[in-house]
Amino acid sequence: MSKASDLARLMTSGSTAVHGEAGVTSSGSTGATTNLQQGLAKAFCHWNSTTTIANGFNISSIDDDGTGDNDLNYTNPFSNTESIITSGTENSFQSSHMSMTTIGGNTASDCTIYGVITTGANVDVGQFILVDGDLA
Description:
The protein is mainly beta. The protein is built from two helices and ten strands, in the order H-E-E-H-E-E-E-E-E-E-E-E. The strands form three sheets. The protein has a four-stranded antiparallel beta sheet with strand order 4-3-10-7, with no helix packed on it. The chain has a four-stranded antiparallel beta sheet with strand order 5-6-9-8, with no helix packed on it. The longest helix has 11 residues, at 3-13. The radius of gyration is 19 Å and the shape is elongated.
């Protein structure tokens, strides 16, 4: 295949696999491949302590459900509730601030993120998330 036909196929398929670190061996084996579409983050968000979105992708809104309790609503839902969520707080000068989520509180269309301090109390704090998974 030519590079142009490879590019055209990629643009129409919406998904592609790339060769891993092994590349193509002398025997023609390509080693492990990674699907790029599955490996991309499907949502991310950075918001302040008042649920104002500073930067985001696939997040339509944030609900304030109480002190340190935020529901982030996805613009495009996930295919299941098993998405992987990485979160953190923006106040690095406050070593006592943490961000956390619970597996049981998430749905395909939203996730719950808590801002907490080391004593276990909820606190309103700027946070960020990165969500990986398959969209519906």
